[in-house]
Design brief:
It is a multi-pass membrane protein. Keywords: Membrane, Transmembrane, Transmembrane helix. The chain is mainly α. The structure holds zinc ion (2 copies).
Length: 225
């Protein structure tokens, strides 16, 4: 499991480094990656997390926790303005550290780490999800008027949150005791972000065969992983 923490941290830092060096622009490739990650994460949530929480709990009470997670993500996005699903609507001219974005993203990422206690398929869903998010976030941080040290600090702490959630979930008795309920909350969060990614990636409802292709691919890969 230690290796998993390492992968999660490195992936985010690598994306930041990539943006700092290559200075990519918002491209259709990035949009496709976002669509793939959304489909992949949605399918893994359905294939991997749903059976786990429903197997040994009362379905209706689990459903309530899923809805709570969904609502929690709605509240978090009031502060993050959608950075979890690849949107940054913040002021590029601001020089003050974006605390609201930072805290809500950290809570989101921490929660995401909780189901990752072993090398289950959902780990890959979260890992792939991190790639477009880290790239888009890094593009914002590096193109804004923020000090570079703020940008680096932001990404560094952000990269640690999911491993921290995972680590604490394996250590804390409280989380172990309420694992199905807490995992259900995470399911709600993941359902929200993955469906918003898919929904927003087809803005004008124009038919895009490549987008449909990567979404389909995301579902297929999730099935076989
Ligand atoms: Zn959005
Ligand atoms: Zn996330």
């Amino acid at each position: 499991m230690r290796m998993h923490y390492f992968f999660l941290i490195l992936t985010v830092l690598f994306c930041f480094g990539f943006v700092a060096i290559a200075e990519p622009r918002k491209s259709s490739g990035l949009q496709l990656l976002l669509s793939f990650s959304g489909a992949f994460l949605l399918a893994l949530t359905i294939f991997d997390l749903f059976p786990e929480v429903y197997s040994d709990s009362e379905p209706k009470s689990i459903g309530i926790f899923i809805i709570l997670g969904f609502l929690l993500q709605i509240v978090l996005e009031l502060f993050s303005k959608g950075a979890e699903h690849g949107h940054v609507h913040l002021d590029f001219e601001s020089t003050t550290f974006p605390w609201m974005l930072f805290i809500s993203l950290c809570i989101h990422s921490f929660m995401e780490g909780i189901p990752l206690i072993d090398s289950s398929p959902i780990f890959y869903g979260i890992l792939i999800h991190k790639v477009p998010i880290a790239i888009i976030l890094s593009m914002f941080l590096l193109n804004s008027k923020l000090k570079t040290s703020y940008a680096v600090g932001f990404i560094l702490v952000f990269s640690l949150m999911t491993p921290l959630g995972s680590l604490l979930s394996s250590q804390l008795e409280f989380i172990n005791q309420y694992r199905p309920q807490i995992t259900a909350i995470v399911i709600g969060i993941l359902l929200h972000i993955s469906t918003v990614i898919l929904f927003e990636s087809s803005k004008e409802h124009v038919f895009n065969i490549r987008k449909l292709g990567v979404i389909f691919l995301g579902f297929i890969v999730a099935y076989f992983i």
